[in-house]
Design brief:
Keywords: Membrane, Transmembrane, Transmembrane helix. With 450 residues, the chain is an all-alpha fold. The chain has one domain (18-231, 242-442): MFS general substrate transporter like domains (Growth Hormone, Chain: A, Up-down Bundle). It has 18 helices and no strands. The chain is globular. The two termini are 15 Å apart.
Amino acid sequence: MTINEKIVLQTEKPAIRVYGKRWLILIIYIAYATLSTLQWVEYSIITNVVSKYYHVSASAVDWTAMSFSIMWPILVFPASFIIDKMGLRVAGLIGAFTTALGAVIKIFSIGENLFGVLLAGQIVVAASQIFILSLPPKIAVTWFKPEEVSKVCSLGIFGMTLGSAMGFLIPPMIVHDSDNLDDIAYDLKTMCWGLAFIIAPVALTVVFYFPAEPPHPPSQTMFEERENRKNVTTKVFVESIKTLLQNKAFMLHTLCYGCIVAIFSSIGTLLNQFILSYFPGAQEDAGRMGLVMILTGMVGSVITGFVLDKTHKYKETAFIIFLLSAVAIVGFALALELNSKWMVYLAIGIFGFFVTAYMPAGIEFATEITFPFPESTVTGILMASSQMLTVIITVILGIVIDKFGTLFCLLFMAGVLLVGTVLTLLTPNILNRQAAFMKEKYCQFTPIKQ
């Protein structure tokens, strides 16, 4: 082999290949993400029944949902290091099995004095989500072509929102309000056993078929990320976190993302109380309204993915969605004040469409700003900030509801969204990842002349 031939080989691109089984990997992820997020509002959507059975306050029941927010800032950095260092398979195994473990623990929570066991099960499931909800952008870049990344990220978020939809729909259908606590206990037992039974085969699927990565990367950019992962150490990871936290554009966007996700999570936690304050006895309506919010949001998130892949207008899309979300929540408040159920269904559907559509746009914009930092770490920081804000805002809203009522609570939410809208407008429009993809697409590798 001549010197020129050696130089040519050294400057050629690595083997790039896209595998058909990438869609199966995505489906498996969607399945176990769905079963994890289903458990977020599993109890808060039936707050009145749970409160009656366990003899605890509505605020105590709120913590079954807020525990998911508490766990994020505690575990986000250790989880991000594990994902960055060990890859998708390890994250998938931890996420699937801790989800299953939490569901099993809740089987043993049936008893009027066992609310602590229920809360422990929720906390274990909450821990699983740190290894689950950070993965859509990671799966997208690990398995899919650059032009598929945004839509795949939105489909991954589809799994989260599908689980939330089921969490709003299923518990009110299974667990009914009754003055006979034995009847409530039977319904709760049915729900817990059913969930554990469904989760078990999904967890086993992750064991037998959820590889860390394909044999060959789908892009030159992903090849380089693989090489960088080999050098991930605790010191390197800590330095990367420091760099991210010093990135002003990213931190401003993180605050915006946290605002909108916190409002969405607060609505999910408090929806039962909102609806019953205007429509007494409408527990099942509250569940169905939550379902409508999530279903329209699923449509919105998928549409956003396709729009972003076509336009790459991340900041512009995020700004428009933020503004329309603020308008929609004012419409929701107005519909409640008019005491019109059909208007409430319509308003919360519109709100769900926009607020959930923001999530893929927000994650993708963060990835653009911070590229080439690992997607799972970036998403983890986004989620941690949003969950911390969720706890703060939900506690404040609980106080506002008690003292001033639902209307002021919703107006406060609209104010938070308007602040986020302004901050989004002020965020620098940085597209580092798109620049890398364009360089990969147009850069020609030529041998060096002797």
